[in-house]
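Protein-serine/threonine kinase: structure tokens wanted.
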Amino acid sequence: MAALPASVAMASAAGAAARAAVRAAAAGASVAHSGTRLSDAVPREIVDDIFAHALKKQTGVSLKYMLDFGANPIERQLVLSAQFLQKELPVRLAHRVAELENLPYGLSSKPQVLKQLCMYAGMLIMRACTRA
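Answer:
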């Protein structure tokens, strides 16, 4: 059997780190034993990718647009919706991760916040693993 490409191996390792961070947060522990920042538990390349997505602007969607779009869906609309989600979801999740990482007054280190942070970051990492 051939060796895995470096990007797949890195994504697999990042996925394992994210799963460990999510388990730790669920148990009420910090993101990592030595700290409470995302970069303490996840490889730097993944953190850079998350924050690169966070710099992108979110696409606004009005309730009227969603109602008109989803009232009588046809296959073309479903494909467009899936394409929109594929592009937009990582941006929105990255925004939530960045917001949770930068909360004031030490709130970013609270177990409940760390749990959410790890869940959002884990979703982005799992998405990276499936792309690789």
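The chain has one domain: 6-131. Residues 1-11, 24-34 have pLDDT under 50 and may be disordered.

Cheers.
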